[in-house]
Amino acid sequence: MNDKQQLTMKDIARELGVSVATVSRALSDSPSISKERRQAIQQFAREHNYFPNVIAEQLRHSRRNPSRAIGVIVPELVHYYFSSILDGIESEASARGYHILVAKSNESYQREVQICESMLKNKVCGIIVSQAKDTERYDHFEHLEQAGVPLVFYDRICPALNASRVVVDDYMGTLNAVSHLIETGCKRVAFFGASMNMIIAKNRFNGYRDALYKHGLTLDESLVRICDNRADAERITPAMMRMENRPDAFFAVNDETAIGILTVVKRLGYNVPDEVSICGFTNGFRATVCDPMLTTVEQRGTQVGKEAADILIGLVEGTLPADHAEKRIVKTRLVIRGTTRHP
Amino acid sequence: MNDKQQLTMKDIARELGVSVATVSRALSDSPSISKERRQAIQQFAREHNYFPNVIAEQLRHSRRNPSRAIGVIVPELVHYYFSSILDGIESEASARGYHILVAKSNESYQREVQICESMLKNKVCGIIVSQAKDTERYDHFEHLEQAGVPLVFYDRICPALNASRVVVDDYMGTLNAVSHLIETGCKRVAFFGASMNMIIAKNRFNGYRDALYKHGLTLDESLVRICDNRADAERITPAMMRMENRPDAFFAVNDETAIGILTVVKRLGYNVPDEVSICGFTNGFRATVCDPMLTTVEQRGTQVGKEAADILIGLVEGTLPADHAEKRIVKTRLVIRGTTRHP
DNA sequence: TAAATAAATGCAATCGTTTGCGTAGTTCGA
DNA sequence: TCGAACTACGCAAACGATTGCATTTATTTA
Questions:
Q1: A177 Cβ contact partners less than 8 Å away, ≥ 6 residues apart
Q2: A239-264: buried (b, 16+ CB within 10 Å) or exposed (e) per residue?
Q3: Measured in angstroms, what separates residue A320's CA from nucleotide C20's C1'?
Q4: Does B130 score more than 80 pLDDT?
Q5: Which residue is nearest to nucleotide C18 (CA to C1')?
Q6: Amino acid A7: pLDDT
Q7: Does A139 contact B at CB distance below 8 Å?
Q8: DSSP codes, B174-243
């Protein structure tokens, strides 16, 4: 039952009394084989549902043709944004005849290096990656490039490498969101962001700062906190709301954090959005579950994934020059719901 | 820059003036090669960081050794439960030296067939799959088995095939949850489930029914609805709450549906959990976001994924007999939060 | 000292395909 | 009627690794 041997060209050749070369040519419809033979061979192959051994094909072509396997490295899997991106990559890849090999770095540099090695060994044609949080050396990525494996970054970009990348427009997304808060009457907007050594964190902060300036407000350091998860948000927010000059709005770098803020603010008895407005970033599952529903910046992970796959495939197929670093920015969209006032 | 040619055994052999066979043996530490040569070759390989070409290895061994690639077919990717399962599979697989190849069926039978073919071609050593909703023919799965590719089902089981599988204990999970509702004082528990042609739907319904019987309640058909998403829940619930003999509790087959119910019930002005209790199934991101937080049955996707990978690897490595269908059931856990009363 | 034994290495086939080149057999023009 | 030009195929060498068997050389034994 197990190991039903695959039908090979050799089998067909033996059966039909021709050489393997003839079978190969016939199956690739080469005109150098007579029409009758060609059809006979093709029919035989069809009837015995022959299909070529990809491994052998690859070995034969290894010097010229890349495989059709795309490696995807994800920091986490149980995560709305990363799931969306994976979804986008899968769609684009499969539509263009590629398949994907997925590995999770678990935010570990060590693991990331292992994965790169393993993917290199397994001859992926390229890799799409978001760095682990604790990655600070980039040799493993450079090795890949040297080995001729193109690299595309998404979300967490490697700043030291001039590699292709696709990111979300964090700056404009934040700028628009904070502008929305101000334009609906908020005067003191707090900012909960991630640690500034990540570029995306910096961009979002800049968007926040510039939105304030644009509307003639000044930046108050006491309203800026490093906080990117719910637990921290629930810990930090109460003190903030007790400030003599409390914020009347919060912008958080992700929905999870925003939900934490919302929970606390509601518990303290404030009306959302009238007394306190809140805006998140992601627009994941959570955003429509909380009460009121969360105003947030739609991050369009699926689109990010598609673009990343598109770049990679372009690089692999030579549509994009190998030495050029393609950089794309996916526009965000502000989704206004119940945690902010309407314009 | 591109295509830095891989270092091969032939290169080493040429460089060191020995035959390829000797290099091969030396690298596999065969005692039939003299110690000095062995070490010289190994050192050379290390210094020029040689690594074997997996493709060639595979081709050579194809008749005996399976690859180390596990195919995973998922109906959707942006979905809490499936993400968790994928996470579990990835963890177990990578811990045991396997990598995974992920494809999304998009709930389409057509696509599922294509994926199976593609994975067969790409020589995965086995496949872990949850059927698409509209899959009703199983030839593609049977082909795989015939080709010697072991199959493990999760979540949506193929009833017609006696294949290995791992499922969550839907029956007991539901029975416990509904018992909890009754034991905290609910008399009229409504059931929102999926269409009964899916086994998991049937099992959950049976759990519901038996919980009622166990507590001396009778089954009221008017309290049972086919509804497994939020939109439908929001459409159906209002009418239900207007019934002369309205339900005082709801059990929903997933968190999403439960949230829909919760939204409506709150909007209608009922107190949750005192006037109406609600229980979901999944324990995903949503459960801790709504207000009050959702009581729900923890589905333990990660565990399901791990078990599935464990079975598959067992089948591949021969630890489990190839003809035996291993069936595992992952225990659920009731997580009591704010949408039900406490015992 | 010759023959037997052991140790270290190479040869060549193999896995399933592809492909450059060579060569029968046919056809055609002069 | 003879060489040229096709046509339709086969041979054999790759791709990169493994492995049974043969071969060489060194060592031991009778």
A1: A207, A211, A251, A279, A281, A295, A296, A297, A334
A2: ebbeeeeebbbbbbbbbbbbbbbbbb
A3: 31
A4: yes
A5: A60
A6: 93
A7: no
A8: HHHHHHHHHHTT-S-EEEEE--TTSHHHHHHHHHHHHHHHHTT----GGGEEE--SHHHHHHHHHHHHTS
